Amino acid sequence: MPLMVATASIVQFDAVRKRYGDGPLVLEGINLAVAPGDFITLIGPSGCGKSTVLKLVSGLNPASEGGLTVLGTTPKQARDRQAFIFQDATLLPWHTAEGNTELPLRLRGVTAAERKAKAREMLALVGLDKVSGYYPRQLSGGMKMRVSIARALTLAPELLLLDEPFGALDEMTRNRLNEELLTIRERSRFTAMFVTHSVSEAVFLSNRILVMAANPGRIHAEVKVEFPYPRRADLRATPAFQARVNEVSRLLHQVELPIHA
Amino acid sequence: MPLMVATASIVQFDAVRKRYGDGPLVLEGINLAVAPGDFITLIGPSGCGKSTVLKLVSGLNPASEGGLTVLGTTPKQARDRQAFIFQDATLLPWHTAEGNTELPLRLRGVTAAERKAKAREMLALVGLDKVSGYYPRQLSGGMKMRVSIARALTLAPELLLLDEPFGALDEMTRNRLNEELLTIRERSRFTAMFVTHSVSEAVFLSNRILVMAANPGRIHAEVKVEFPYPRRADLRATPAFQARVNEVSRLLHQVELPIHA
Amino acid sequence: SKQTAEPTTTAGPVKIKFQTDWYPQPEHGGYYQALAKGYYAEEGLDVEILPGGPNAQVMTSVAVGRADLGMTDGDDVIVAIARGVPLKMVGAEMQRNPQGILFHTEHPVKSLKDLQGRTLMAGAGSTWIEVLRKKVGVEFNLLPLVGDLARFMNNTEFVQQCFVTHEPFFARQRGANVGTILIASDTYEPYRVMFTSREFLAKHPDVVGKFIRASVRGWVDYVTGDPAPANKLLAAKDDTMTPEFMAYSIKAMNDYQLVSGDPAKGEFAGQLTAARLEKQIKLLQEVGVLDKPVAVEDVATLEFIPQHKGSRDQTN
Amino acid sequence: MKKTPSILLWILPVVSGVLFVTLWYAVRSGSGLQSWILPTPGEIIDAAWREHTRLLRAAGNTMVGALAGFLLAGTLGFATALLLGVSRSLRAGLYPWLLVLQMTPVIVLTPIIVLWAGPGLPGIITVTWLISFFPIVANMTQGLVSTDMNHVALFRMANASRLQEMLLLRVPSAMPYYLAGLRIAATLAPIGAIFGEYMVGNSAGGSGGLGFLVYSYNTQIKIPALFATALTSCLLGFIFVAAVSLLNWAVLHKWHDSYERDDH
Amino acid sequence: MKKTPSILLWILPVVSGVLFVTLWYAVRSGSGLQSWILPTPGEIIDAAWREHTRLLRAAGNTMVGALAGFLLAGTLGFATALLLGVSRSLRAGLYPWLLVLQMTPVIVLTPIIVLWAGPGLPGIITVTWLISFFPIVANMTQGLVSTDMNHVALFRMANASRLQEMLLLRVPSAMPYYLAGLRIAATLAPIGAIFGEYMVGNSAGGSGGLGFLVYSYNTQIKIPALFATALTSCLLGFIFVAAVSLLNWAVLHKWHDSYERDDH
Ligand SMILES: Nc1ncnc2c1ncn2[C@@H]1O[C@H](COP(=O)(O)OP(=O)(O)OP(=O)(O)O)[C@@H](O)[C@H]1O
Ligand SMILES: Nc1ncnc2c1ncn2[C@@H]1O[C@H](COP(=O)(O)OP(=O)(O)OP(=O)(O)O)[C@@H](O)[C@H]1O
Ligand SMILES: [Mg+2]
Ligand SMILES: [Mg+2]
After folding, report:
1. B140: Cβ below 6 Å to ligand 1?
2. Is E256 contained in some domain?
3. Which of B182, B248, C4, C32 is deepest in the core (most CB within 10 A)?
4. Residue D61, domain CATH
5. Is residue E195 part of a domain?
6. Does B187 touch chain D (CB under 8 A)?
7. Residues E200-220: what's their mean pLDDT?
8. Phi/psi zone of residue A127: left (φ > 0), alpha (ψ -120 to 50 degrees), beta?
9. pTM of the full structure
10. Residue A115's domain is classified under what CATH number?
11. Number of C-alpha atoms within 13 angstroms, CB side, residue D246?
12. What is the per-residue pLDDT for E203?
């Protein structure tokens, strides 16, 4: 495991353990240092604790044991410099797609005109400019998720937490949004913690991939992906890319086999 | 488009059009005959109307125009012979995983002991036997979806509608459940209409793949996948399999490009 | 409607129910005295006195046969009968209604005319209010009567409806200097009456007669003799009732000649006269409470009214 | 809920109305009840017509108290629930006293109300408010604490202030609860005002409302007129209920599941 | 909602209680109010002690009526809401008449209640029921129509009968609404019974309840005792509210967001 100097880390886990209430141990001895500019992907079997890791970083749930600092402070205090794309779209049913998208800006007191412009821009980015006036119940599953992505991107966070944001999208849209995400990152240089079940997505986006194992959740192995940013779509076709994909898949096999044995 | 004799079809669309309320046209001129034993996959860009097609078949929403028969009768009357796995897990928050799983059996008046046994069996199949007493809010995203799959499988429907059931799952679990699904199908011989964003999943499971285009939603092309059932996991590694995957991907490119242009 | 009275042919007392208009209080003392001293038993009656309350529905109770006889304000019974409730008055309980005006002596009400322009707490819709407005010609501001004396106690200009036999005692006990004036006057002389349903009257005139006789006897005994037997019963029903209060109440009944009436005018306990009823009906019509006339014979029967001498004899 | 043709929604109350009136007449004739216990609908309408000037004037007076009390309950109930919703500590400290306020019989408070608010209209408004306040508070508070925790997490992550979380999240999501409370209050407002007229009302300047009429008709045993007064009070109530239903529609129909038609 | 240490939840009502009592004394001395308008808490407790046998006996009597009326309202309210929830047509046909029942001043119905239910306890129970019934119906009905349409779709697909949809889906998901209605009814039950004692009660056989005491303390100007009676009525109410809170916890804590602690 890489261990960086704590002060330089964006996120620092030291022997973190987590259980919900008096339930079983969900995370065991997590040690992790996320450096500025890292794009870290968590990948692993369903229920292994990926979402939980992101929730600890966001401060939505506290760690049960161990030390955790985010952006040099506590998770909760670092909140105004983070954004979180939840596993569920979590749209407010009484706002339209546009109203939902501009919500974080509204909470920050941005003027109506400015946030409307920004919301429209982000909705266009995710291909939803035509349905900005739809209420959530009128949107398809993938459309809802895209609104939620647009919403998180209206902010310019230093740390972006993404929990399977592209899971409900078709491959084309998914790939395109992958590329958009990296483009935005070129501009605003955020650090990312990302959860996905798609190995190729993980390899395309990240510089570090953490393969997690379950029962209790723990980091099984780390894979470094050294392709330089900015990455272009044609990277996916290279043998080096495929090699990384195979490596991660092999690691996943190791952690997954015991569960369903 | 293949056109079979109506009486033999499990599902028969004749020039079906759909709009919600007075909104824009969502589905245009859908013609489709699903034969007994078909495993049909709908694939296409987000918002193209895949979920809508399944909802029409289920009778949850009525077609605006055109003729639609399901299992030789109206969609609503055919309901006791169908099961639907929704895009969202749609678990009842006041029931445990087990309570949610046995719900359809309970609605059919199956005895407590019998449905408990069945629920446990299905939960074990999706790898959730250890958490059968958890409430939905204690489950991870993928776990919720697996409960929902287990729930649908407790019934032995003639027609199974599946709306991205495996989208929130890791590849291993997903592959394993794909295989389980085909195994169950060997036993109970249901006809399936399936929505996914994964081309390889589509090819592995289906005998027919419908590639849909959006704005308005329509069937762009159909790909037949003639690999005989039962299919084994190692099918995925064959060149023939890869060829089908490439064919479907190419068709998807055709329908997707215009949208984000 | 079912009647509880059985034909008197069988041995043993006749069971009847008598409905009062309020919780047990000295204003019902005569009935309890008759009960305690065995006057009802002497007549062969087994009387159950049903207590009332703020919404006692006395007339309804009697009309539908839940009780056999009842008591309440005379003009209410007249109005009810005029509106078709099948009742009939059979005797007077008091010659005058104890209803009065309670005032602080700092701002006295010497005659009803003094109410002009003042704020009065009283039961809206009461006949006497219409009489004051339309016959006496005083105008005042009306507050609904809730039953609390707190506002009265807090404000010496406040005047409120009361029973002269009741509220003044408690107000004085709390240190207020209060006076009362009876609402009944030469213009308006309401009885408090006993009544029964027409059906019961037709079936059991004998029972009615016996009940009236024993009740009037009880009343006379209660206000002139030793009230202890009735008071004991009352205190058992409501333990907030003190001997001092009951003594006060009885004294007020005597001071205002409520039960006995004014002998100078030929009045006596239990009496109802056709002339006074006639006058009352006319008055009710004049002030608009009654919209059509009603005959005295229809509202009351005088056949059970005890003779003055007779009632005095009984008390001896 | 199956879709019902909207014409049925107009016809059914009429049908049930006809049934109701028939039943009424049946009860009257079957049970031997008389006019002074249960007047027939015909007698009531007769009386309403005869007394209509008086009834209308009284209804106008009562309406003023009912409306003011209702609006006060609606706004103060909303505000109080916000206060209670802000923190568990405030809830723990304040809720018991609200309960005490709600559960103290009004008659005990009457002298204080008259003293502080004054008799007549101010007192009537206070009583109406007292009676319709708590259902709103109780419902709105339940609504505020029932917010979807995923939405709360969203606001927490956006670093929303306590106030923003309250106003932009909890309040909108509590709307169905608030409106159900408001609907209860709407039915309570006219009877609250009538009760208030009973307790602290005052007939000065012809300001007697339906409460006065109820009292007088009752004492004077004008039973059909009494029922006509009750009818008038119901009609007042229907105005309030209709207003709340309209508000309910305006606030919820675009997004809430209670307005979701499954068939488009 | 931030997590509050549970000790605070016990201390805060005490603190607010102390504040309340202090305020009370301040109002008393500051405003020159007298004991017969606003007795001090000390005087009230004194009176409560002096009158405790009487109060307890009366409270017992009132409790019987309140409890029976409350249970009746809780069950009939539930059943009625089910009926209303079954179809829009039934709702359209029945709801207006329920509103009429709720909005008719009780005094108008008193003679009928006395006639049909009988005076004393049966009448008191009827009045209590009348008063606490509608909040339950209104809330539960709103709850039944607010069911998540995705869940309804699930039931439709499973070919659930109307009854199953009602009992296994709509009813459980309406529980937070029902319980909020029950909580309102809990506060209404004791004052409803007291009001009922006023309207249709009698003190026969020593069955005088708190309503009777309110009346007699009032005429006897025993104001501290009157407030002690109000206090007793509040205590009765707290028993009901506590019972509902317990029920609320039992039904909801495992799954409902109102019991979700964000910190584990
Ligand atoms: N609120 C909670 N209370 C109790 N247990 C919980 C809670 N949330 C999650 N868990 C448990 O913690 C474990 C990890 O959950 P988590 O959501 O982190 O998984 P995940 O890796 O994100 O899975 P998925 O890929 O399915 O979303 C699971 O076993 C789950 O049951
Ligand atoms: N209830 C509704 N009211 C109005 N419009 C709707 C409704 N449901 C869906 N739509 C619209 O119908 C179109 C198709 O939606 P549908 O859910 O069928 O898409 P989908 O193919 O399943 O997409 P995804 O892959 O994102 O789930 C979308 O444009 C959506 O906005
Ligand atoms: Mg997760
Ligand atoms: Mg979909």
Report:
1. yes
2. no
3. C32
4. 1.10.3720.10
5. yes
6. no
7. 76
8. left
9. 0.90
10. 3.40.50.300
11. 6
12. 57
